[in-house]
Amino acid sequence: MADESFDVVVIGAGPGGYVCAIRCAQLGLKTACVEKRAALGGTCLNIGCIPSKALLQSSELYEQANGHLGHHGIKVAGVELDLPTMMERKDKVVDTLTKGIAGLFKKNKITHLSGTGKIVDAGTVDVDGTQVKTKNIVIATGSDVAGLPGIEIDEKRIVSSTGALALPKVPKRMVVIGGGFIGLEMGSVWRRLGSEVTVVEFLDRLAPGMDGDIAKDFHRTLKRQGMTFRLGTKVTGVKTTKKELQLTVESAAGGDAETIACDVVLMSVGRKPYTEGLGLAEVGVEMDDRGRVAINDHFGTSVAGIYAIGDCIKGPMLAHKAEDEGMAAAEIIAGKPGHVNYGVIPGVVYTDPEAASVGKTEEDLKADGADYVVGKFPMMANSRARTYDQTAGMVKILADAKTDRVLGVHILGSGAGELIAEAAVAMEFGASSEDIARTCHAHPTFSEAVREAALAVANRAIHF
């Protein structure tokens, strides 16, 4: 390996890194990818997106079987939770997909360098003591769990999302610190499996960044399902006793402290860029004021030949955002145009119902002083939603008041993560709400709610 050199070395084999490596190889570049984990796929495939969705699906089925099928004429008795088997299935899903990435590397003749990468200079990456020469380097190291001062994550009783994916038993009481996407998803899993879940959020609302109307409806829906919320509340400490954990909390505005007792604490206050040990300062790669790798409009860092993508740079920490950046960076390195439309990156919370969005929120538009029109349609008026007993939520479309161009779409409802793709495609092509409204949608489908919301922009929804 010491004598072998590459056109591109990608550091990190998560969604951004492995996609970048594959696209580089497709473009004829001799490519290597460095990964310190035993399995490819990064946080997303190993301890993030994929295992969490597997548990979300399993827990939804358990909840349905455990008392939600009777009115369908399906009598189920003696339902039992087999948590080890549920976890085993989750692990098999992860194993299959990570092995699939390894297969793609072989197919595309990408060299997998197993170990920890450190940049020596613009043309050299050290992988556990072996010097690898390259013309270009792509930093795709992702992010790590963020914490709170004075609260130590042990992945047993005080857990991050990683520990929450592998609890050996259902905790009687769980407190989730942070009301963002990850905390709500994992909180939903353990609530369905029998835990009493309390979410403590510093802000006075859930899911910061979500459209306000959707967030309020989302909050009400999760509350009806049995989750407890303490909004506008901060955690000041956690005391561990043999019997339980005791969280000290107080109002975010200040006030008397109180205690919340539980068996497991899930720390879910966000993520931070992972750049430790990469040697960035030594080679002169500049960072921004939030600890992210600073880049230009072409993903280039302050050092020529070194690029960065994904969670370790600016923008939302989303796997699909990293994938788009990985493809764009590969194309730029190969001398081709590469571009990411950051205005059309969807976000999804995979609870039940799902919450999904793309584009501007109404709060964004108000802050911008934009002249806009709103169209809303409730899922309760959608035929397919009625037949599926999935009537919670709505579709909300925001359009420019003069041009009718779609500026944002926000959905709370069953399959919202799939429905949002239609909105993303429409916005990518500059569609108007009229374009969506005049496009025939199959009946009966959840997607009809998107069309009805588009019709509602002009006050002509048919079914509400």
- Under the CATH scheme, the architecture of the largest domain is 3-Layer(bba) Sandwich
Oligomer: single chain
Overall morphology: globular
Radius of gyration, in Å, reads 24 Å
- The poorly predicted ranges are none
Tally of individual domains = 3
For this structure, what is the CATH homologous superfamily of the largest domain? FAD/NAD(P)-binding domain
Structure, described:
This protein is α/β, with parallel strands linked by helices and 464 residues long. The chain has 3 domains: 210 residues, FAD/NAD(P)-binding domain (3-Layer(bba) Sandwich); 112 residues, FAD/NAD(P)-binding domain; 113 residues, Enolase-like, domain 1 (2-Layer Sandwich), CATH 3.30.390.30. The chain contains 14 helices and 22 strands. Helix 3 packs antiparallel against helix 4. The longest helix is centred in the first third of the chain and has 25 residues.
